[in-house]
Hints:
Layout: E1 2-6, E2 11-17, E3 23-28, E4 35-41, E5 49-52, E6 57-59, H1 64-72, H2 80-85, E7 89-95, E8 100-106, H3 110-122, H4 128-146, H5 149-161, H6 175-179, H7 183-193, E9 199-205, H8 209-220, E10 229-231, E11 244-249, E12 255-261, H9 269-287, H10 292-299, E13 308-313, E14 318-325, H11 329-342, H12 349-366, H13 370-382, H14 390-396, H15 399-409, E15 416-422
Parallel strand pairs: 3-9, 11-15
Antiparallel strand pairs: 1-2, 2-3, 4-8, 4-9, 5-6, 5-10, 7-8, 12-14, 12-15, 13-14
Amino acid sequence: xxxxxxxxxxxxxxxxxxxxxxxxxxxxxxxxxxxxxxxxxxxxxxxxxxxxxxxxxxxxxxxxxxxxxxxxxxxxxxxxxxxxxxxxxxxxxxxxxxxxxxxxxxxxxxxxxxxxxxxxxxxxxxxxxxxxxxxxxxxxxxxxxxxxxxxxxxxxxxxxxxxxxxxxxxxxxxxxxxxxxxxxxxxxxxxxxxxxxxxxxxxxxxxxxxxxxxxxxxxxxxxxxxxxxxxxxxxxxxxxxxxxxxxxxxxxxxxxxxxxxxxxxxxxxxxxxxxxxxxxxxxxxxxxxxxxxxxxxxxxxxxxxxxxxxxxxxxxxxxxxxxxxxxxxxxxxxxxxxxxxxxxxxxxxxxxxxxxxxxxxxxxxxxxxxxxxxxxxxxxxxxxxxxxxxxxxxxxxxxxxxxxxxxxxxxxxxxxxxxxxxxxx
Length: 425
């Protein structure tokens, strides 16, 4: 067992890998009544291909990770949600690009809730009628996304940025890919990915570490570790697939999304984390609401309160996105692009220190939300780091790191433009 006490943030941390291969993290919070647990399966929407221990290739349809999440909530004994609510707990799940996460919150019987969580995640029921029913449910969900301007703006951007990497696909898949899913595929997918050694459990709350680890060992120590496969991803070419995508939807104001693809995809986990932080700091320094560039664009009516930006960095890829709603499409794009390309002369230590301190403050605030904290712990474990130790990396970032990453991703780099125009009457 690993134990750490992080004096700077006044947190304790327990971590243990059980005989079954399950990795468990506990953040004890003795003064809280709420208890939170998240069981994260190391499989997401981008994990469509693997090679097993016999060198056989397994290929899965787009959307199968999300489909699996839906199917596990299907239970022969009734509603999973009702079962949790009867003991005063709430349960939910979500599928991302790299993980599928099942979680609950409770103030009552924590271990009964934990038993329920493992019961429904580890014991699926793939009934053919329910599979067909779920296809219709997910197809409705896909159609709903198709009608969402924000969703279209985001995924059209990814499809323009990427040639091959499956992050460009809708997490829910498509009607065509969902139709390929059957009982045999689901069983194979579950058998490969839903092994305890491919999972992480994060618990936050007033839970004793010895009681937690003993309970888990007693319940799961006899389960064999069958996780022996290699995930396979396509080679992503450098550059962007499409410079501009233009479409029309029923909206009140036109939408633009500008995308920038990461040029350096490091294998070193610390470098990946630094890229994540420095790029988000750059965007904050450029377009944060306290910044003169933001007010310049805002006062010219080129952007409004819906203006946003973010950078997403994963193990295999990364991209920055800038979003705006505007009636002056060309002027807004030109204004943002000009700022990005000429900022080099305006970079200064004072602005950097202000934003850096803001990020330190956000880090400490994130510790107050059980849900945010648990998701960040999982994200950084996947990147080979402890989130409670990330404050050290933030503090070590220097202005030179900002300048280097600015040149890498923004300064005269290839840009994707996705424009959603208002349908003409």
